[in-house]
Amino acid sequence: MSHPISVEDVAFSRFHRLLTLRSGGGSFVDGYVLSIIGIAMTQVSPALGLTAFWEGIIAASALIGIFFGGFFGGALTDRFGRKRIYFVGPTLFIVCSLAQFWVQSGEMLFTLRFLSGIAIGIEYPVATAFLVEFLPKKSRGPCLATLTLLWFAGAATAYMVGEAIMQSGGADAWRYTLASTVVIGVLLFIIRLGTPESPRWLISKGRQQEAEVIIKQVYGPEFSLRNLPVQPASKHLSFKSLLHSGYGKRMVFVSLFWTCSVIPVFAVYAFAPKVLQALHLDGNWASLGSIAITLLFVVGCLIATKLVNVVGRRKLLLHSFLWSGLALLALGYLRDGSSAMILLMFGAYALFIGGAQVLQLVYPNEIFPTAIRAGAVGIGTSLSRIGAAVGTYLVPMSLDTIGIGHTMYIAAGITFVGLVVSWWLAPETNAMSLEDAASLSEASPGLSEKTAPLTRRSNI
């Protein structure tokens, strides 16, 4: 009797393509929301009479919201299912975007962007868990990497749309700029209608009959529960018990490498014109440089997306941290160099950091079991955004007190910390099924194998 084909070995289908678009839309909105404030801030500050404190705290407000959204979104997604929480983010995007049009104070703008950040934080665990639990294993890495690519595409769109609105909208252009997110939020809500619940999550809750109906609906009438190689989760499994069983090191790895990869990126995005001006790029050089660097981030992520299955997760991550860190070191050393050289090094950083960026969503979704997958992604999102928020807030002060050179050296040091952590703890999960990738029995640097039986009993 032949062994039934696993749903992880099926061909990439129209359903998978649509689900990638549905989940990736949240990443696009994320990039747009976090970047658009930098464009609008030139008018926001004088219009609302913002102090330097309020400029920094508003720039970091969405990142602070992501911290809370990630924690709550992951827990809610694991408890109530992927499908219900899938619409929370788009709804918050729509409401907060509309409200920003009528904002009258720094406090109100902070609150609305904080709520938008909560929506973004919720998006990470629900969208990625939803996607990874349906995808064939050969498509898992590239599709999850595509979500990061869409983040940078959203950021690039924010720069282009924001600049266009700011140049043609008059004194209230900043209001239209901040409210422009509502269009994307509405589209995201609409395209997500009709998405089925994850069969893996249903099985983890003992709802096998519902899971089988969805399996047949998605993969065909010849498929059934036999084609989804998972075991029902033990009633005694909990997030805390799994972390103590050996997944704690994996949580440390995800949180640290994610944090080290986002701090310099968010600092650059929030204050790109100011950073470039500190490097003596003024006027058109600074404006065009911001757009060029953003587009190079997209190119870097696109290249990494193509390489994630070719060179493997671990090697891609190590090379990404190494070469992007060297580019930041060069920026610090060449701080008084020519404009062309400065843009070249910034461009090199943008290209090389793409590997670490795309793996932010690949690793946590592959190395944790279904019972805690969304929660782990949520915690990784939250903890990484603490560092990103602090880094974003401190950039203006760092530029004013220790200068651009030392600021770049600090950014390089953070990147090299990510390199060391990844060398120590990063596993290789390329071409593995979700069951094997999330199993502690798979040999990988720095990760314990002593609790493999617990993993095998859990619902991967």
UniProtKB/TrEMBL annotation:
A Pfam family assignment: Sugar_tr
Domain Major facilitator superfamily (MFS) profile residues, every copy: 19-430
PROSITE patterns assigned to the protein according to its UniProt record, in alphabetical order: MFS (PS50850), SUGAR_TRANSPORT_2 (PS00217)
TM segment ranges: 21-41, 53-73, 85-103, 109-132, 144-161, 173-195, 251-272, 284-304, 316-334, 340-363, 375-395, 407-426
Membrane topology (UniProt): Multi-pass membrane protein
Location of the protein in the cell: Endomembrane system
Keywords from the UniProt entry: Membrane, Transmembrane, Transmembrane helix, Transport
Record InterPro entries: MFS_dom (IPR020846), MFS_sugar_transport-like (IPR005828), MFS_trans_sf (IPR036259), Sugar_transporter_CS (IPR005829)
Gene3D superfamilies referenced in this protein's UniProt entry, alphabetically: MFS general substrate transporter like domains
Recorded family membership: Belongs to the major facilitator superfamily. Sugar transporter (TC 2.A.1.1) family.
The protein's name in its UniProt record: MFS transporter
Taxonomic placement: Bacteria, Pseudomonadati, Pseudomonadota, Gammaproteobacteria, Enterobacterales
